[in-house]
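Bumping with the actual sequence this time:
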Amino acid sequence: MRKGALSFLLTAALSLTALSSCGGKAPEKVRVGHVYGTTSLSLPDGFLPDELLACPDGGFILAGSDSSGDGVTPVVLTVADDLSVTSRTDFGSDCGSLRGAALRPDGSALILTDRYDEESGETLLGIASLKDGKTDILTGDILGDLEKSGAELPDGGRFGLFPSGIAIDSDGRVYLFADSDIIILGSDLGFITAIQAEGSISGFGTASDGRVGVLVSSRRGGATVSYIGTDTWELTGGIDLPSKSGRTPDILFGGGYELYYNDWNSVFGVSAADDGAADMSELMNFINSDVIASSVTQFCVRDESRFAGTTDILNADGGFDHSELLVFDRVPDDEVPEKYVLELAVAHTGMSLPEQIVRFNRSSEEYRVRLSVYDQYDEETGNVGETTLEKRLMSSDTPDIVWLYGFGRADDWMSAGIFTDLYKVMERDKFDRSLLFENILDCVKRGGKLYGMPVRFSLGTLAVKRSVVGMDSWTVDGFIDYMENLPDGTYPFEFASRKGMLDVLTELTMSGFIDWETAECLFDSAEFGKILAFAARYPEEWRYSKSISGDDLEDYRADSRKPLLDGKLIFESFNIYDISQLLSAEYHFGTGDCVFIGYPRGESSGGGTSVIPTSCFGIPEKSSLKDGAWEFIKYMMSDGERDIDMGFPILREAFARESAEDLKRSFIMKSGGYMSLGEHVDPEIVKKITAESGGEYFEVSEQDISMI
């Protein structure tokens, strides 16, 4: 009833605001802001950059490795502002790997290296200097040198195994970082002190005033930038930065601002507000600049008008071809092309969505998409971002598209009629619905109307061992009868608690007890009573791995498949969003003995599969750019790049294309996961890999594809 009441309130609010959206101005082409243009330089073959520095007086330093010859050799390149490589310095394989680089006040650089010493069995950190293309090895074992001098160091093993980099202040002092520890050296590499941050150090660098700043991620959440005081050797003067999910943000230093903050959606210039919070000004927006942020590896800042990054270019087979230096320069606002701009509201960016948006923006002459992220959360009031978006959806100031994935109230919004009926949009566009798997649309439609387009989907089902169960399908009654007659020591599945069993039995039967259109409930039926009575027999909390001990527990830890193969656990649930999950089920229950029996349903239906719309888009009814929004949704349905995390495409042509790619895939399945091998592998190589890994080799077959 709560759902129905909320839907009514939303509908009422819409009716009150609908008048304000009538007779509005026609949409106009506009320019997006925060745009930077990209210039690229192909780096030498075999060179893979690990560190990128912007020199204050111009140009860049790239430290990395070269694998084009025999073995891997540390290499440093210097690049001028005109993107010409002015010098290349090979350090020689004796130096090991490059771990970091930092600029000295005189313009030279220090390079942090590490190498494994076979004689001592330890990883040794070295420091070399680079000036005018010439190198000088200052020490091959800085930690060993410091220990010999009597310095009190943090755990040397951690520093040797997990060094995260090097920084230098304006007086030439050297700072070495690992986890939460910082070793501070004089310009002559003599020991000064060692300090520890109250949290994990996830970023560091030298500010324009010469101080060394440190980004500390608190164990309680959040992140703070503090500076190392050279009088007290303590971290002082913090700036609180917003916490972000997904890719770890970077702090960067350069001219113009106190520091720069890159959350991989945008780059911000940051100053400290009076209350210690970060006063942030958006500078570069990756999507508006047509830059695929996920492909950018290293990143640095010269000043607010010029940034730089590196990217890896792949060959036709998907392997590494070469790296490129990318230089990003600010584009004046009046030079940005005008287009119809579609606002896309999301709860989070996901793994692939920003890249898909950039590809759409590059391909469309009329439209471009800009992203609005509603991920704000407050411990007291809850999901602030979702509440803010809901208020916008009920006003005339609405986004043009909403990615419904991740919004908890998405079902309420669709039921309230906030979004336009996409069946009508497809009819107006003369879009052939037979191109889609329409049964997927049936899972989203409300009262015969389609308020969201599921461009991708996954499948939920149960798998069993055929030789144990002896059935290919089951009804609710059949499921209950079977489980009630299990022998001692045999259990339904890993999570056979009261809630676990109730979830299994209502996965596909709940529509028989709830009218989703009217929000009426029918929980007083005999059928639902039987389900409740059966689930009530199970404990409130239970897990198989917590119920065993001794040899059984050791066997389970060694191979979690054992209770499934032995018939001690009857079924396992699978969310199939990629063909690999099918093969994983086959591996877990035994090759040739696995059957997807499905979730139990009504008396005549037998077991069934739950279709789960994953990546789903809605177009708000009050958007003035519905045609453009629909163009973007069509692009998302047909996008040539697969999005495995979001499941299978709803467009039949895209499904056929990805299925053809799947037929070339092969895997080594293991108890703890799997190894993807790509193309089918020579039997002798398979034999060697499986002998080393203890796994089992699988190739995707036509039968696997047809099962989906």
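The tokens above came from a reply further down the thread. Residues 458-579+594-613 form one domain.
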